[in-house]
Amino acid sequence: MNIAETRKKIILEYDFAGKIFAEEEEEEEEVMVVSLKDITEQKLAEEELVQHRDRLEELVKERTSQLQFANKELESFSYSVSHDLKAPVRHILGFSDIFEQEFLSMIPQKGHDLLNKIKYSANKMERLIDDLLNFS
């Protein structure tokens, strides 16, 4: 039943108070007390609340689905970025080690210092990438 159909009807709530006997000169008279209350507006408001709740539940399901999709996209992006950023850093560290092993005797002290700075910076970059991925 929708609101338009409900508006055509008057919804009544009634209370039955029971039987009351009144004595009047040896005659007993049965009296019944009934009270009526128009609760049409209350029922319309209740129906409207149910419709709003149902719509809100639909919106929550939609938003949840959108968030789940966005999270999957973020995970995929993070994995891709991790791989794309970490590979060059691993190459820098690997080639630095090879260079140091191959040319150790030919490198002056200043060259060793610069090579150590390169390796330190590459290791730091690798840790930053890992921390960024753990954060996301």
Q: Tell me, briefly, the overall form.
A: rod-shaped
Main beta sheet strand tally, sense and closure: 2 strands, antiparallel
User: Uncertain spans, ≥5 residues at pLDDT below 50?
Assistant: none
Q: Radius of gyration from the CA trace? A: 41 Å
Helices, by number, come to: 3
Mean pLDDT: 81
Topology order in helix (H) and strand (E) letters: HEEHH
| Helix/strand class | alpha+beta
Strand content: 15-25%
User: In total, how many beta strands?
Assistant: 2
Distance between the termini: 49 Å
Key features?
2 strands, 18% strand, 3 helices
Helix and strand topology:
Blueprint: H1 3-7, E1 12-24, E2 27-38, H2 40-103, H3 109-135
Antiparallel strand pairs: 1-2
Helix pairs in contact: 2-3
Describe the structure.
71% of the residues lie in helices and 18% in strands. It has 136 residues and is of the alpha+beta class. The chain has a two-stranded antiparallel ribbon with strand order 1-2. A hairpin with a 2-residue loop joins strand 1 and strand 2.
Question: Outline of this structure?
Answer:
Helix 2 (40-103) packs antiparallel against helix 3.
